[in-house]
Amino acid sequence: MAGEINPMEQFEVGHLVDVTLFGYDVSFTNSALFMVVVFVILAVFMAGGLKRQLIPGRWQVAAEEAVGFIDNMVSVNIGKGGKKFAPYIFSLFFFILFANLVGVLPLAILPHFHTFAVTSHITVTAVLALASFAIVLIVGFARHGLKFFSLFVPHGAPAWLMPVIIPVEFVSFMVRPFSLGLRLFVAMTAGHILLEVFGSFVVQGLNAGGGLGWLVSALSFVMIVGVSALELLVCAIQAYVFALLTSLYLHDAVHLH
Q1: Quick check: 250 and 83 in contact, CB under 8 A?
Q2: What is the pLDDT of residue 257?
Q3: pTM confidence score
Q4: Residues near 41 by Cβ (< 8 Å), separated by ≥ 6?
Q5: How far apart are CA 232 and CA 119, in angstroms?
Q6: Residue 29, phi then psi, degrees to nearest 5
Q7: How many angstroms separate the CA atoms of 53 and 81, rounded?
Q8: Can you say whether the dihedral through the CA atoms of 29, 192, 248, 73 is positive or negative?
Q9: Cα angle 35-39-42, degrees, rounded to a multiple of 5
Q10: Exposed/middle/buried for 70, CB within 10 Å: 0-12, 13-18, 19+?
Q11: Beta bridge partners of 20
């Protein structure tokens, strides 16, 4: 239908450079482009913190505070032996944070250009979640061997409840990567759809004209401002929750209970 606005169109992965390798489609897409953009932003951000000036500037202070924030997170939530995981948690947190923020930049006002939220795709969030889960399994079995399975046996639980508790604990453990990936995916997708829907209300209200049309446009614009502010908060919260839960899962792998 002419003039129809599709809120799901913003999530479509499009080819920028078509590439076929050994019969497989490995084309460079808009999703890959924005992952590269996020990586470059993260690299530039950290480059400013490596100057090690005697009197640090704002950029260096920001980078050092970011490192301190993650260092405190792993120290509190992983405990002894958690320092070695700080680089991974740091990369995870700031990749997700910058990806979320880049995805909400209002660049659609430019002709034929809009940002792409890579964290609104389940394939991206699932890979991040599975990578974290794989590290938990590797660390758990490397440190404890088969004793790692004691994670499914709560300390102090009565023996007669074990046939019920162990399956429940096992399912709860195995569902962790799914909850990690889905939480981030759903939160980012829902926010972008809301912005697109209210944006379409603004346009349609202006096209309709009249008092009612202008009223709908004005109210929708107010909603866009509110949802945008909420999205900025969600961007930070979702990155924090993902990194925090990964730290807690690593605590289980390192210390069992």
Answers
A1: no
A2: 67
A3: 0.87
A4: 98, 102
A5: 14
A6: -105, 175
A7: 30
A8: positive
A9: 140
A10: buried
A11: 25
DSSP 117: -
What's the first-to-final CA gap in the chain, in angstroms?
58
Q: Which two tokens stand for residue 24?
A: 């497989």
As a whole number of angstroms, the distance between CA 17 and CA 22 comes to 16
Here the tokens at position 110 are 């430019």
Residue 46 exposure: Cα atoms within 13 Å on the Cβ side? 13
Which tokens go with 106?
Answer: 């209002």
pLDDT digits (tens, 9 = 90+) for 152-211: 887 777 788 888 888 888 898 899 999 999 999 988 888 888 887 887 888 788 777 777
Regions of the chain with pLDDT less than 70: 1-11, 53-54, 56, 107-113, 257
CB 231 within 8 A of CB 195: yes
Which residue do the tokens 């938990």 mark? 136
Using CA atoms, how far apart are residues 171 and 61, in angstroms rounded to an integer?
Answer: 43
Strand, coil or helix: what is 209? coil
CB 136 within 8 A of CB 173: no
Please report, to the nearest 10 degrees, the dihedral formed by the alpha carbons of residues 182, 188, 190, 196 taken in order: -150
Tell me the two tokens of residue 255.
């210390």
Scanning the chain, the segments in alpha helix (DSSP H) are 30-47, 58-77, 86-103, 122-144, 162-174, 176-208, 210-255
